[in-house]
Amino acid sequence: MPNFRSGRLLRPAALLAAALVAASGAGCGSSGGTSTATPTASPTASASVGTAGVLGIRDPWVKAADHGMTAAFGTLVNDGDTNVTLTGATTDVSPMELHEITMRDGKMVMQAKQGGIVIKAKSRHVLQPGGDHLMLMNLTRPVPAGDEVAVTLTFADGRTQTFTAVAKPFTGAQESYAPGHGQPAHGTSATPRTSPSPAS
Prior knowledge:
The chain is mainly β. The chain is built from one helix and twelve strands, in the order βαβββββββββββ.
């Protein structure tokens, strides 16, 4: 898919989002984890522009990973007068799901985002570690730092939008999730801890 770069917001939709983990193993597991600190987006990521113009996407990035799971993040911007609902995302390197982090029994757990992600009119919605994200469920190839991943978003009204996210190294909180996304693996904590942002 062509990438159009400019200094504007990404007009692809749906931000990336994705996930809090790059995983080695079962479930939404993370070998490096993530936290609310995010790497500085590169000019390439900030400048990619999609073709449909449903949403603007600021600072899209993907957590670099060798295998397993990882996630895509960014800020979805809706400059329109009506709400927009993101219902799905696809990429050629992995199946994808829309995920959220929520509290359950005093613990942070990852789960599918039921009903999609709503970006209200004249507002923005942040996809970030520890929050809503686009989860790459099972990488078919490594996504090293500096790699570019094309992500196509699908909206409730049938429109689609494609954007490019740049992979960044990121080690933050040590989240680790068991298969089924609900419960952290035995002996691990799912509580994000702040760590310094990695170098871009």
